[in-house]
Amino acid sequence: MTVRATYRIQFHQGFTFADAEQQVPYLASLGISHLYASPITTAQPGSTHGYDVIDPTRVNPELGGEQGFRSLVAALRAHGMGVVLDIVPNHMSVTGTGNRWWWDVLTNGPASEYAKVFDIDWSEKLLLPFLGSPLPEAIAQGDLALQRREHGLVVEAYGRHRFPVRPEDRDADTDTDLAALLDRQHYRLAWWRAANDELNWRRFFTVTGLAGVCVEDDAVFEATHELYFRLYAEGLVDGFRIDHVDGLTDPAGYCRKVRARLQSLRAGRAWIVVEKILGAGEELPRDWAVDGTSGYDFMEQVSALLHAPEGEAALTRYWEELSGRPGDFAAEELRARQDVLRWEFEGQLAACVRAFARLAGAAPETRGVTAGMLRRAITALLWSFPVYRTYGTGASAPPSDARTRGIARERAVPLAPPGEIRVANRVLEWLAGNGPGDAGLAAEAVRRFQQLSAPIAAKAVEDTAFYRYGRLLSRNDVGFDPERFSLPAAEFHSAMAARQAHGAVSMLATATHDHKRGEDVRARLAVLSEVPELWIDRVRDWRSMNAAESGLAAGDEYQLYQTLFGTWPPGLSPDDRDGLASYRDRLIAWQEKALREAKLRSSWAAPDADYEKRARELAERLLDPARSRHFMASLAAFERRLRPAADANALVQVLLRNTVPGVPDLYQGTEYRDLSLVDPDNRRAIDFAARRRSLEADPAGFDAAKQALIARTLRLRREHPVLWEQGSYQPVPIEGIRSGQVVAFERRHARKALLVAGLLHCAPVLIDAGLKVPSRDWWDGTRLLPAGAPPIEAAVLFGEAPVHVSVHVR
Question: Does the reported pTM lie above 0.90?
Fold first, then answer.
């Protein structure tokens, strides 16, 4: 079944397969072709996202188990719909006792039949950094004890962590010398702070509870994918989204292997997309045998399109003056890369250096290269990498890697010690598959570098620099390039034409379970790029109002104001204490996460309770009617003033997602206004009953207008599938006094064509003219053209007022 449009569902024990089954008729009425499911394999008990898998061979019983899943699929099939699964090949959760494979590894060490499942360096004992203090101190304080539990004899820590003992010690007395017994095990318990420096197994980013899986091993691949392949072979699943593909040893080889196995199981072509962050100028390799990405690249493109380039200089200047931090994101990224590599990846860096030192020592021409030289060279390159990773095998590398290596070398030159750039050149030669030495050693060294550069990029950019750099928060999201403030319509058209040329089957997303801010938060904040001076003046007023109460660094206070403006719920009254309390709790949760991720004045590793208290008190004060009624009135008035332009942005974003080449994805609940913040806020419960009613009753208001636009465009895709799958994408010439404020294109195939037009950067017009929100009828934004239609002119309207732009279709 062709995947035409997806609807993402976040499954957990509070929203199961049975709950989703009740929504199938509604999803069908929207025009959805496939339910796009978060991971359904057995995860940690109570998981709200499913990525902490403990058993990849079984459908999660908390979601309804395999029987519940089959019932859901049957309901979907009855409505002509299917399922796309999100799968997690890179890692498994290893906390608690639920992962029987990991438990066996702890019990039997390298002799375990599951030892090769996990990416472990068995040259020393398996490090388990889960203690609250160093081991001798934990024992002395009585934090560890030997107990007989349902799993047999176990070491219990803090009453919640449990670790097995080896078979030889199963009959040990519970009064045994605990230090001596632990010394005999296949693992070494340690203080949690040792993880960054001494961990001898690959983890997911910096999450010590998620262990890397060796899916490059054929037996491990089959064991961890058996369930997926069986469901696909039975016709229960039509496609897959592969999570964090860049974490794997060989992403290209893995993807081709998945494609081959699926083709061997069932006729037809499965739809496969990968979660892949594309850096500036990077393209998804064409030889991976996948259909595209999971949509972060489109989210970046359409968001940049909504930003007005005229606001860049003023907003950059204000951020520099206010925060004292760089206005250039590249400088902020470099600092973040240096910090996270030094603070959080010492163990992986040391292992990478050792691998290259062994490789260098195996060839006469590189025996003079010391481990210190290699460490400095590798460090400079990791600071400088423009993308997540390269894709070499040690023996070869794809041609597309050459660009990445070239940029990395250029950036590394001023960062390397004098005279040592030639060592970095050697490392780059090995990454290219051209360096001297043993082939096996080269493969291992290259693997370690590539599996280190990816998490460095993720943690430094998305989870550090994005929380430090506050020029305009709508340009800081997963897969975004904050260095690019805006995107001209001509470049957007070029990108969409390239999508069409490459098959038009990549996912199109504007909201995900990973986003930092909801799609309509970004659309609202983008309006500030159109009226920067108006915004800056308003922030100055707010800072003056709250100067006596702030106590925060100016940059943190500024990001709080952006977040308040971007997420302020329309209609929230200063008299609505319950509404304010709920909103305040969400804001404080975001603020705590933002401060800790930035790692400037607090962090997850060492929270600054005093600073976080001041931040919390400011947020509470700003949302307290008794103390900040004037501020809230000013904030609400400013949001109302810019709301028409923000809503126009939000609707254009939806219109483009559903009409450009690709497969549009609708994240759960975002058919209404999406003012969510970073997870877990973006996983809140969805009122599906309200959404069903509005779709049936066709009421007024933004939520209904957005939902109706989605339904209108997705139904067009359902009714005219060939137009979308094979139709051309052609930019439409724009003429008129505001021609720069319209993006328009035509989709055409044989005797059918569709004209699509959307408004851009309309805040000044709406503010000056005092116009209302664009009319619902116009915001369908599309016109089906009869075959052979002559050129037409379409007046672009704001409510009843024309903007005097002609869209010419020739």
Answer: yes
